[in-house]
Amino acid sequence: MDNIDIKILKLLQQNSRVTASEISSRINLSVPAVSERLKKLDATGIIEKYTIILSAKKLNKRLMIMMFLSLESPKFKDAFISIIQLDDEIVECHYLAGDYDYILKIITESTESLEKKLLKIKNIPGVRKTKTIVSLSTIKNNYSIIPTEIKN
Length: 152
What we know:
Blueprint: H1 3-14, H2 20-27, H3 31-43, E1 63-71, H4 77-85, E2 90-95, E3 102-108, H5 111-122, E4 127-135
Antiparallel strand pairs: 1-3, 1-4, 2-3
Helix pairs in contact: 2-3
């Protein structure tokens, strides 16, 4: 990967629908060369997927919380993960080192829907303790890493 690839990736991060022709004109490279680079970025797995980002607010999901969670024992892990995977309002789940086993990012409509969600999660077999933090506003939210320029 070189600086041209990084420029292509940054353009795609701004708009994944940008065409090879548009990329070509912005980085002064031929359309076939851009297309070939895109194929390589896809094939090597640097680009995991193309997607859209929905507005939570426009979908009436105005409350974002982070929930730290610990299980009683690792034997509950598989069942816990299966339940978490099925819940569309749990948008992220990370396995942690430290005082808690997992952190969940939950986006929901209101404190009422949050209360129901918390009761549901706390009733999952094996959940031992939780700590919930409500986000008041989002300062920065990148959806993936930003590639950095390669210095010669």
